[in-house]
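for the record, two folds in this file. i put them one after another cuz i was lazy. first one right below, seq on top, structure tokens after. the second one comes after a little note so u can tell where it starts
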Amino acid sequence: MLSFKRWLLFAALAFSARLQAAPPLTTISDTLFNADGTPFSGVVTISWPSFEASDTSNVAAETEQIQVNGGILYVQLVPTTNANTAAIYTVQYANLGVTLSSEAWAVPPSSLPLRVRDVRVAPGAITGSGPAAATLISIADVTGLQNALNVRAVIGTGFSASRSAVIDATGAIDGAVGNLTDCLHVDGTSGPCSTFSTTFIDGETPQGTLDGSNAAFVLTNVPSPTTSLALFRNGLLLRAGGDYTVSGNNVTFQTGAVPQPNDILAASYRLSVSIPGVSFIDQETPSGPVNGVNAAYTLSQTPSPSSSLAVYRNGVRLTSGVDYTAVGNAITFGSTLVPQTGDTLLCSYRTAQ
């Protein structure tokens, strides 16, 4: 029969062996707060499935409740990120018996204490360890995967990094073919970019003597088109063909419209302006009888944008919303501003092609 001393020795050795067989632990130590900034007090419930730790220790499934006072959380857990079998901790926060929130923890091995943020798993994330040996899964093993792949575009034979992407006739994604300075068209082709000019001449003073008898004046450039010329005398828009004529860059005033000393002349016009998708309508006379009764007039096209419309009555530019309203290509004058017999109406605007 063993002596009492020997029995104590065997017991100590057995207890020491059990301690040595215990799996490694990671400490999670943090301070928890409520949304209003006050320390959290309540119960943190941590549960986990059975799993095999990295040192082959078998961890039984269990649930542990930790009382948190003043926000202080302290717990030691077996790491799961390097476990031999997949495992994750489910954590619930409760106060007064009511579950407030829940989250998942993936605990890595660490000799230093970790905070909750170090182990919290983002919603939707996949984590944990798996079997050491990889298992090959074919596309056919995943229900619906092949159909999902069939509707996704594949890389075409002409695919190249740093090129504009186009979809070829087979539905594959290819790289656009062409020079780096080319423009890409909606049909996937490429070519030289269209060029356009945007030369506008605004507020130019025609050259000529203002003496009441000289009728010939010269512009710096030739208006293109000629109808783009808007010639103002003392702020009033003059009528081409009625008050003056234009030939090249020469302006000749009609008898009775010859500028007088101290008059102010200003000319605005374009020089072969070409803007893709934009056209200009210059000094159009809207359709409708000018008889002192009719207030409704119609333009040949719809201004786009509507704010580009400029309406002149006897050379004076009218104010939209005050003197008239414009909806689409229809112009309606106010009841007290109906054009009278002999009045001249001219409209200039832009349209979208």
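(here's the note) second protein begins now
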Amino acid sequence: MELKRVTTPLTDDVIEALRAGDKVLLSGVIYTARDTAHKRFIDALDAGEDLPIDIRGQVIYYCGPSPASPGRVIGAAGPTTSYRMDAYAPRLISLGLKGMIGKGRRSAAVKEAMKTYKAIYFGATGGAGALLSRPVLSYDIIAYEELGPEALARLTVRDLPLFVINDVLGNDLYEMGVAQYKRP
């Protein structure tokens, strides 16, 4: 299977061309945010406030990077378990969030929102945080600095290796993997 090169911000055309199981090299600006930052997003929206970023077309990486070693942009930058963001993701997707990066399965509500609003879920390899930090060219905290590694940060990446887990057609790479080993 060939590698597909994808650049942010994501558009509907790009998302519609990706399928569960595709191998992707992602480049451009992405954002890191975990569950506490996501809760703050929803609290801000509920209060009628703007989000700290324009979420339309963006990708959020569920990651809490470790401190950088001398001479490095960022420390280990591996994915965190995505279901912790499932309570918040459908609303963000409805506002234009186009991509998410993490590990593990997504809820039915998140998968339905991805189909309805054209968004995609990428998987990053868990346990490979040191390797996943290599494509990071820049790291800047832009909101919620008091959250430490869970702050909202802007990353510029080049060729971040990912797999498409859930596509806009409702396909799920995890389910596809299990199905190929089931006996008829």
